[in-house]
From TrEMBL:
It comes from the Eukaryota. GO terms for biological process: glutathione metabolic process. Pfam families: GST_C (PF00043), GST_N (PF02798). This is glutathione transferase. Belongs to the GST superfamily. Its EC number is 2.5.1.18. The keyword tRNA processing does not apply. It comes from Ensete ventricosum.
Length: 243
């Protein structure tokens, strides 16, 4: 049996992607909670010396970093169980495109970060220092006091969600009837929607009802339900970090 270890932090949507993928495959693993606000463990620093952040999947002593890469690796390492990416090359390319869209747009515009100092203390929210400035500038606009800047940022965020809703259409999941890669990439962010709504003053469900209905369908899956935390727990975490 392969020795599988996941270095993670409970509230991280990126770590949750990995947890969902492992659960879909029925893979048993050792979960190791990392202290993102204090000294990073020697194992994390050794396993991810470039970015020094979670999540990291370690399989038989070999580390794999970056959540979407980890999910694809899980799919390839256990190919005989619940495929996460479609077999058709074009469909696979489309799935990767939309997962990349989630990383570049939803993560960047979602009000999960508030200031540069907060970002430095929440490594699980930021892909790397390269994106730090971009994330900060987009998120600060959404967290600022009421005004034109915040309204514009909300509209940008909602428009991104509407694009995703358009891609989903009337399908059960993004890949059709089968739960897969894009669903795993996006669904962890839905537990942050309540915090977004509370801080920025808008309703995600009013803006994108089909997307919210999709998120509820995802939560009916055991792999998702056991990997995500209640939005109120996430909100309490957000309050502790951001005030």
């Amino acid at each position: 049996m392969k020795a599988v270890v996941l270095l993670d932090f409970w509230a991280s949507p990126f770590g949750q992607r990995c947890r969902i993928a492992l659960a879909e495959k029925g893979v048993e693993y050792e979960y190791r909670e990392e202290n993102i606000h204090g000294d990073k463990s020697p194992l994390l620093l050794q396993s991810n010396p470039v970015y020094k952040k979670i999540p990291v999947l370690i399989l038989d002593g070999k580390p794999v970093c970056e959540s979407l890469i980890i999910v694809q690796y899980i799919d390839e390492a256990w190919p005989d169980r619940a495929p996460l990416l479609p077999a058709d090359p074009y469909a696979r390319a489309q799935a990767r495109f939309w997962a990349d869209f989630v990383d570049k747009k939803v993560r960047r515009c979602s009000p999960c970060v508030r200031s540069m100092s907060s970002i430095r203390n929440t490594a699980f929210l930021v892909p790397s220092n390269v994106f730090t400035h971009q994330v900060c500038e987009s998120a600060k606009k959404l967290w600022t006091p009421k005004g034109e800047a915040q309204d514009a940022a909300k509209e940008e965020f909602i428009e991104i969600l509407r694009l995703l809703e358009g891609e989903l259409g009337d399908k059960k999941y993004f890949g059709g009837d089968a739960f897969g890669f894009v669903d795993i990439a996006l669904v962890p962010f839905t537990t942050w929607f309540y915090s977004c709504e509370t801080y920025a003053g808008f309703s995600v469900e009013e803006a994108v009802p089909k997307l919210v209905a999709w998120s509820k369908r995802c939560l009916e899956r055991g792999s998702v339900a056991k990997s995500l935390y209640d939005p109120l727990e996430v909100y309490e975490f957000v309050k502790k970090i951001f005030g």
